[in-house]
Design brief:
The protein has 10 helices and no strands. The protein has 205 residues and is mainly α. It has one domain (3-204). Helix 2 packs parallel to helix 4 (82-105). The longest helix is centred in the N-terminal third of the chain and has 30 residues, at 45-74. The protein is globular and about 50 Å long. The model has no long low-confidence stretch (mean pLDDT 91).
Length: 205
């Protein structure tokens, strides 16, 4: 038995809902650390928490995009976790927005001003808004109502969402920082890989 088969055998024993539990525990733990100003939350806990939730959301977006190429290139199959990863991604992005709107800005009028005034907020908000229909349709009932083909087309919004999220992060940071550039390059590479694969399938067909 090869390594991929061994990993897949172990993954089959792990229920997908574990992703939700781990995500919720991590989010609450980070909030508790911020509330008590522990560790990295000693200075500016609200800003640090806002960024922490956003970074987790971006990492989960990357993980979601990796699922198909990972199966293709290594044989490791995470497909059964894809929906849970997507919903948990939305949860963290929503938490990121709520910390920004309720704890940081503290005013609906100021939230709108920030969205209009600051391009990185505009891009981030657009990414968040595009995620809402995906979160609402991440269930079997929506697949049946929309039809599998339409549902798949809708969920291709994941690609622009991920790109916008990476651009939001890149514009957010001050000065030259390598981490947001790496995220953007990885996401662009994964999206490009996906479209190259689709184009090859069309040519074969």
């Amino acid at each position: 038995m090869d390594v991929a088969q061994t990993i897949n055998g172990g993954l089959r024993k792990v229920p997908a809902w574990t992703i939700y539990i781990v995500g919720a525990i991590y989010a609450v733990w980070q909030f508790w650390l911020a509330l008590n100003q522990i560790g990295p939350y000693l200075v500016e806990p609200i800003n640090v928490l806002e960024r922490a939730y956003g970074e987790v959301g971006l990492k989960l977006l990357v993980l979601g995009l990796l699922i198909t190429p990972l199966r293709k290139w290594t044989g490791v199959n995470l497909i059964k976790f894809r929906r849970a990863i997507g919903v948990t991604t939305f949860f963290f992005v929503l938490a990121h927005f709520l910390v920004f709107a309720i704890l940081d800005v503290q005013s609906l009028e100021r939230v709108w001003t920030e969205i209009v005034k600051r391009p990185y907020v505009t891009v981030g908000m657009l990414s968040f808004v595009l995620m809402i229909p995906l979160a609402l349709t991440s269930n079997n009932l929506s697949v049946r109502k929309l039809g599998a083909a339409s549902w798949r087309q809708l969920h291709k919004l994941t690609y622009p969402i991920a790109i916008l999220g990476a651009v939001h992060y890149l514009w957010l940071v001050k000065g030259f920082q390598l981490e947001p550039i790496i995220y953007l390059v990885i996401i662009l590479g994964l999206v490009a890989t996906r479209y190259v694969s689709l184009e090859r399938k069309r040519q074969v067909a």
